[in-house]
Amino acid sequence: MSEKASISRQQQKSRETKEKIFQAAKRILQKKGYEELSIKNICEEAGVSNGSFYHHFKTKDDLLSYYIEDQPKIDPDLLELPDSVAGVKEGIIQVYMNYVKYCRELGVEFVSEYYDTKNQALNAAIRMERPYPIVTVQNYVEKAEQAGIVSLNVGIEEFTTDIRMIVIGNVFEWCVKHGEADFEGNMARSLGKYLDATLCRG
């Protein structure tokens, strides 16, 4: 047996364990809610040890964050620097259309439980890592500014904070309406209005 094949099998087993833990957490969230989502309950549901859980995740919120943020990465070609403010706006909205699609794939029940006020993974003041979409947007806007395509009439931290709040508001509305809200339309419209007010020609 080659070392490469052995590593590959280990990696596959690790991925399967991670997925097993996630599916267990998802079942608990959907059946019993966030209050019952303890590491003990997750491990029992998944049939894994506590040590196995901690090998993959630091906390239960780390587990949820990993999956809600590990969305399929947007096609890099869509985020090539355009030559206009309108193009930058379109690129940013596309990032969050991708996020909306991923939320739909996870399901409104799962997302509703994740966006719980007790989930400190949502607290930007204490998060060590920032969610993928906002990192992508910040890097994209900073590159567009450096290229002289756009300028912001607010600071970059204020800009990303405002976008994060707009996105959370749209997700919350979708969850409160049990998936019946116009998720895509509301997200695109509200982000579009904010971007029209903050993105200027470079």
UniProtKB/TrEMBL annotation:
UniProt-recorded name of the protein: TetR/AcrR family transcriptional regulator
One Pfam family in the UniProt entry: TetR_N
Organism: Candidatus Mediterraneibacter faecipullorum
Residue range(s) of DNA binding per entry: 38-57
Keyword field: DNA-binding
Annotated InterPro entries: DNA-bd_HTH_TetR-type_CS (IPR023772), Homeodomain-like_sf (IPR009057), HTH-type_Tx_Regulator (IPR050624), HTH_TetR (IPR001647)
Taxonomic path: Bacteria, Bacillati, Bacillota, Clostridia, Lachnospirales
Keyword DNA-binding attached: yes
Keyword Cell inner membrane among UniProt keywords: no
